[in-house]
Specification:
By secondary structure, the protein is of the alpha/beta class. It has 10 helices and 13 strands. The chain has 3 domains: about 90 residues, Winged helix-like DNA-binding domain superfamily/Winged helix DNA-binding domain (Arc Repressor Mutant, subunit A); about 100 residues, D-Maltodextrin-Binding Protein, domain 2 (3-Layer(aba) Sandwich); about 100 residues, Periplasmic binding protein-like II (D-Maltodextrin-Binding Protein, domain 2), CATH 3.40.190.10. The strands form 4 sheets. Strands 3, 4, 5, 6, 11, 12 and 13 form a 7-stranded mixed beta sheet that branches. A two-stranded antiparallel ribbon has the order 1-2. The longest helix is centred in the N-terminal third of the chain and has 29 residues. The radius of gyration is 32 Å and the shape is rod-shaped.
Length: about 290
């Protein structure tokens, strides 16, 4: 027995006083309605209605049951309205994991705009470059920038692409031998990003093995040493863009083939995605399109 359906029939029957009228409104046969009410009475072990050929009267038990059935259906309608309201007016909290450099550059601007557009969504943002299990750590959304396809247990939405730049300060270039091809980098002080998938093999042209005096887990930290003329970096454009625009560093080997970084928004696979998360991803997609 579908008890919720039986409750709805029972309340309608009490309001309309006729199996025929209930059948007309619900597009269900009178016999089906009668069977549902009988099953409901059987499950309760009590009679709710006195039936006659002319009218229907509630028993004393039926009157008390009607009052409570109305309350249950009203609460259900309220729950449905709550979900529909959330779908239209996003509220709630999102716990987000993002790479450090992206979080301190482009994503900081993105989420400042997002908070202005959705003031009722609260953000809990954690920045870090470690490989984090989003589900285990309770994250609703994560960001990953990768130049290679990767297996994931999450739903991945590509948002945008970034290029890599080989960067050095003008002062470094002046003091060292010229760099005209990728192989020349093996003779220079090239910094290593700790979490780079290729480690000390830079994917430039056919690939070049590099060595350097600095290894760091932050490309933003590395940029400060690069700007001071201490070495060369293989840096995502969102980290070095401003320094290039200001002339603090210059791009080397701009014509060489280099991979792109694809930025993905990742979230755990769910049958029902929270409205706040849906609005957030849609906002991100439109933001990066612009």
């Amino acid at each position: 027995m579908d008890k919720l359906r039986a409750l709805q029939f029972f309340v309608r029957l009490a309001d309309l006083g006729s199996f025929t009228r209930v059948a007309e409104q619900t597009n269900v046969t009178k016999s089906m309605i009668s069977k549902e009410i009988s099953k409901l009475e059987e499950s309760l072990g009590a009679r709710l209605l006195h039936r006659s050929t002319r009218n229907i009267e509630l028993t004393h038990v039926g009157q008390g049951y009607l009052q409570r059935a109305r309350a249950i259906l009203a609460q259900l309608d309220d729950a449905d309205s709550f979900v529909q309201d959330l779908q239209q007016h996003a509220k709630g909290k999102l716990k987000i994991n993002a790479p450090m450099a992206l979080g301190l550059t482009d994503l900081s601007v993105v989420f400042a705009d997002f908070m202005e557009a959705y003031p009722d969504i609260h953000l809990d943002i954690h920045l870090g470059d470690e490989n984090t299990d989003l589900v285990e750590q309770g994250f609703d959304l994560g960001f990953r920038a990768s130049s290679r396809p990767f297996d994931s247990q999450y739903v991945g939405r590509p948002l945008t692409r970034f290029e890599y730049r080989i960067c050095a300060a003008p002062s470094y270039i002046e003091r060292h031998t010229a760099i005209t091809k990728a192989a020349d980098l093996s003779q220079h002080n090239c910094f290593v990003y700790s979490y780079f998938q290729g480690k000390n093999l830079w994917p430039i042209g056919e690939g070049v093995t590099i060595e350097g005096k600095l290894r760091a887990n932050s490309t933003i930290f590395m940029m400060e040493a690069i700007k001071r003329g201490q070495g060369i970096g293989f840096i995502p454009e969102f980290v070095c863009r401003e320094a290039i625009d200001k002339g603090e560093v210059v791009e080397i080997l701009a014509g060489e083939t280099k991979p792109n970084l694809t930025l993905y928004a990742l979230y755990p696979a769910r049958r029902y995605v929270p409205p706040a998360l849906t609005h957030c991803i849609q906002f991100l997609e439109k933001w990066f399109e612009r």
